UniProtKB/TrEMBL annotation:
Regions that span the bilayer: 12-35, 67-90, 102-129, 141-163, 184-206, 244-264
Record GO biological process: transmembrane transport
Record-stated family: Belongs to the binding-protein-dependent transport system permease family. CysTW subfamily.
A Pfam family of this chain: BPD_transp_1
Protein name: ABC transporter permease subunit
Domain ABC transmembrane type-1 intervals: 65-260
Keywords, alphabetical: Cell membrane, Membrane, Transmembrane, Transmembrane helix, Transport
GO CC entries: plasma membrane
CDD domains: TM_PBP2
Keyword Cell membrane appears in the UniProt entry: yes
Keyword Transmembrane helix (UniProt): yes
Membrane topology field: Multi-pass membrane protein
Taxonomic lineage: Bacteria, Pseudomonadati, Pseudomonadota, Gammaproteobacteria, Vibrionales
Length: 279
């Protein structure tokens, strides 16, 4: 009688192991070959860290990393502000004229192919360049605007789902006690949705850092992001420096994810404790 549950349990562990192997084995191989001494990434010839030193001496790659980090930070910050405002409007303002159109415009980048988004933004910047000197040359500014455009949609979805779970009675009680709406927002609502805002910022930063298609449409010769540099170099053959760069990015993302998880878990425990004390 106990053989069936044990058999099912083994199948679950086998499926879980197969899934993790499929997802993380290529990443593990990439990390291992970043320490390969050979220039051929598929031939192991010994342990070496020389590609990490050559990576930091590559001005083109380092310039792409710097530009992508700056654009990612600025795009995520702007997307968090706009996405939080949009989520607040959709969840707290009730029914208003044009609500359906507004919601569709916010969520359209989620389902729109990146090629269409990039092409439409390119045509927009060309038209704006004929009217404004600022957009006559495509570069960092146009990439930033394009990334904010589609990152805002993801932040809106994340923050909106969190706002739907917020207990409105606490906010109403604070306003009944005389607190103005802005004070209720900054002292009650904002700390409650802070984990979702942080998650939205990290998601927007990752999407901006990873974007290749849209950036290829809206960038110019003066601005080349990291994905564009990597893609152009991989077309001529994978360099061990790319493996070293990918390893450093994986390490940075893993550390940032762990810190974000720890902060959000701590904030969630504090929120649950405050809810119990309020009850």
């Amino acid at each position: 009688m106990n053989a069936i549950p044990v058999y099912k349990n083994k199948w679950k562990w086998m499926i879980l192991a197969a899934g993790f192997t499929f997802l993380y084995l290529p990443i593990l191989i990439l990390i291992i070959y970043s320490f390969n001494e050979s220039r051929l990434v598929t031939v192991w010839s010994g342990f070496s860290i020389k590609w990490y030193f050559e990576l930091f001496e590559d001005d083109l790659l380092m310039g792409g990393v710097k530009l992508s980090l700056i654009i990612g930070f600025l795009s995520a910050s702007a997307a968090v502000v706009l996405g939080t405002v949009a989520a607040f409007v959709l969840n707290r303002f009730g029914k208003f004229h044009g609500e359906t159109s507004f919601a569709f415009m916010i969520t359209a980048p989620l389902v729109m192919p990146e090629v269409i988004t990039g092409l439409s933004l390119l045509l927009l910047f060309i038209a704006m360049g004929q009217m404004f000197e600022l957009f006559s040359q495509r570069g960092m500014l146009t990439i930033w605007i394009a990334h904010v455009t589609f990152c805002t949609a993801y932040v809106t979805v994340v923050v909106s789902s969190r706002l739907q779970e917020v207990d409105r009675s606490i906010e109403e009680a604070a306003m009944d006690l005389g607190a103005p709406p802005w004070k209720v927002f900054f002292q009650i609502t904002l700390p409650t949705i802070a984990p979702a805002i942080l998650a939205g910022w990290l998601l927007a930063f990752t999407l901006s850092l990873d974007d290749l298609v849209i950036a290829s449409f809206v960038s110019g010769p003066s601005a080349t992001t990291l994905p564009m540099v990597v893609f152009s170099s991989v077309r001529l053959g994978v360099s061990p420096k790319i493996n070293a760069l990918a390893t450093l990015i994986i390490l940075a993302v893993a550390c940032a994810t762990f810190i974000a998880w720890w902060v959000m878990a701590k904030a969630e425990k504090r929120r649950q404790l405050e809810m119990k004390l309020a009850e």
